[in-house]
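Margin note from the TA: students keep mixing up input and output lines. Inputs are the sequences; the output is the structure of the whole complex. Example:
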Amino acid sequence: MNYKPDESTLISYLYDELSDKEKTKLENYFQQHPEELAKWRALGDVRDMMSFAQDKEVIAPPVFVDDSNVRSLWQSSYFKISIGIAASIVFLLVAGKILGPEISYSKGELKISFGNKKVVEPVPANSLTEEKVREMISASLASNNEKQQTLKEEDEKRLMQSLVDMNSRKMDVLAKNASLASREQVQAFVAGLQEQNLKLMKDYFQLSSTEQKKYMESLLTDFSGYLQEQRKQDLQLVESQMKYYEKNNNQFKQETEQILTSLIASPNRSKNNY
Amino acid sequence: MAETLLDIAMMHSDALIARAREGDKNAQGKLVQLWYKRIYNFSYKFFFDHDLAMEVAQKTFISMHKNLAGLQEVTRFKSWLYTIAVNYCREETRKKKASRSFSLNDLNPGDGEESYYWEESHQRHENPERQLRHSELSDLLQKCLMELNPEQREVVIMKEYEGLKFREIAEALNISENTVKSRMYYGLDGLKKILEQKQITKENIGYEL
């Protein structure tokens, strides 16, 4: 017989979980293999000994769990909505109290109004209509235009009349004076006029010639001044140039002297070195 | 293991889990009260460290609170809860490996009444001396358990101390039942060798107690 129980079977037998058939089979095996039975019993003994390991007494501490799913009443959407509605109603009531709203419904028309009601005086039955007012305005405008036109025409007529009267009177006076003047008087008048004209011409020429003279004189004076100034500047320039050349020349002279002295001194030095 | 009222309540907590899953804070609080001791003790046996066990237990229940709504089947709550706990245990193991630290108590546990075991013995009114021996034996066995590799250790704790079925352990660890049984076998076999090494036998224990 090749039957050999595995660990699983031995443990099942230890905890009495084997079926009757398997149990018989295993018991037969143990009868044939007492050393295996002893081994198995030893496992039972271990169990017995290990059962002396006691449980520790412990008191369950309060376990506090932060439940993030639980929301306070303040955070619930119902609360927020109802608070929103209540706030709106309160706002309307306050606004209503201040503004005095009036809600009316008549003939299928809903009216919400605020503030004091306007008292509309009843319109009398035979009162003016819009058309009548328009007619009245147009009629008054037309009559006014007519009046203005007639007044304008009258004024024009009067003005023309007065002009004609005044011109004719002047013409009459001139004609009368001309008819009264003699030939001598006319000649004297013309001569007076000629004299006046001559005098005017003379004065004009005199004045223009003196002015021209004065202008020419001033022009010449200015030109001579300009020339003097120019000459003066040129002289200064020449003088400065001369100074510059002189300075350069002196400097060149000094440099040449220095070079010459150094040239003269250098052979002596080279001699000394040898 | 004698069933306490708490165990019975845990076994019949389907309605409570369903309510907790729907967001009932009260039900969630009751679930914490029911399962805290189990998860703490699982972690404690896994690490043999009170602080780490507290850390894992708290993280497990915070995670439970956050993810309970996503639990598909109420009947799978137990394995689901242990999955979370195991994952945190593994995470803490990785952290522990990264920063090797040890408790000051491990340096010098002291003897007799000087020992912190004495301080930690919870039923001192029964028989303090006997209780101390119990506590010391418990810690000795716990140390043996700590010598197992983590994979075997978690299976042994789940089966022996937490009373999970093999199917539930398989679900919690996302492995096959055969693998669970195999790990259990090698775990118990390993413990047998460790106990032999430390010369802890059934007779010794009976004599001590």
